[in-house]
Design a protein that fits this description.
The chain is α+β, with helices and mostly antiparallel strands and 178 residues long. 24% of the residues lie in helices and 24% in strands. The termini are far apart.
Length: 178
Amino acid sequence: MAETTTSQEPTRRDFLFIATGAMGAVGVAAAAWPFIAQLAPDRETVAQGAPIEVDLAPIAEGQIVRLFWRGALIFVRHRTQAEIAAAVDTPLSALKDPQPDSERVQAGREQWLILYGSCTHLGCIPLDFQGAYGGWFCPCHGSVFDTSGRIRQGPAPINLPVPPYRFVEDTRIVIGEA
């Protein structure tokens, strides 16, 4: 009967098996990486979802600034005292979608109105300082919004929505965080 012995020391064949397996694993990882990486959102998508900070200091009284957040148009309006008074004095019974002006702005900062800038009828972009109420007018189908962004006439079913925002200073807001 022949006796077989096993060598405890690695042989050249063992080294080749390990080296081949390691190179195969590296090759599979290198081939799979582009497929895994494409599942992550690109920089532009990540940036669109992030909150944005807006400096209100350069916005003059009576001016409207347009900006984009998450791919949506946002109106930032620095209202005059006359515009605020017109919005506050409007009886809720005259509104199609009754909402007091105080629910659309932050207390103590009534001069700042921040709204999504697309008509709630079909998503058109309303024109500033137009219409019978000095707010916005959608030329596509005739919706008229007042100085608080509330629907007053036309087919739009609801007011212009208010995005989530908060003041971090008296002249600085962050849109995307409430």
